[in-house]
Amino acid sequence: MIVRDGIPEDVEQMSSFLRELTASGKRTRPDDEAFVLANYINDPDKICCSVAEDEGVILGFQSLKKAKEGNQWGVEPGWGIIGTHTKPSAARRGVGRALFDMTRKAADEAGLSHIDASIGATNSEGLAYYEAMGFRTYRTLEGTICKRFDV
Ligand SMILES: CC(C)(COP(=O)(O)OP(=O)(O)OC[C@H]1O[C@@H](n2cnc3c(N)ncnc32)[C@H](O)[C@@H]1OP(=O)(O)O)[C@@H](O)C(=O)NCCC(=O)NCCS
């Protein structure tokens, strides 16, 4: 498995496993290719969007963007905002861990001090994953737990 920057050619596979996550109730945001391209690969606030790939198969991706004034998540401007998605058939094999190695370096290089991960309160695997990566709960909103990583 290698971890590299995501490119537009990855969007089809990224969207495909986001649809799997939607079908299993693990995702509620859009999952179509146009959304993936605009909100992850080509996001104007992007710091990085890394993909984990094994011989042409995209196993997961992680996006890091910079929180702007008035962002929809209410995250402190200047912080990073992270999102992680692993293809269901590749879960719990270290994909998320490998992705965060790269994202953490990118956050450091971008001069971020904190990263927010907003996770559904009932998403036990997402909560366990971010906790394992060193994120800690700093606020709780209705139905959402927000964890912070200090870069
Ligand atoms: C959360 C998610 C990204 C984890 O990705 P992953 O590639 O499976 O994670 P990894 O295999 O790298 O796991 C790293 C560590 O996280 C923790 N972890 C991950 N999945 C877990 C689970 N299902 N139960 C308990 N702990 C878990 C463990 O500590 C694990 O280390 P270990 O396997 O050595 O014990 C993945 O389950 C996913 O895509 N879920 C759906 C989308 C989502 O909810 N994203 C998070 C909110 S944005």
Automatic annotation (TrEMBL):
Residues 1-151 form the N-acetyltransferase domain. SUPFAM superfamilies: Acyl-CoA N-acyltransferases (Nat). CDD domains: NAT_SF. Keywords: Acyltransferase, Transferase. Pfam families: Acetyltransf_1. Coiled coil: none annotated. The keyword GTP-binding does not apply. This is GNAT family N-acetyltransferase. It comes from Parasulfitobacter algicola.
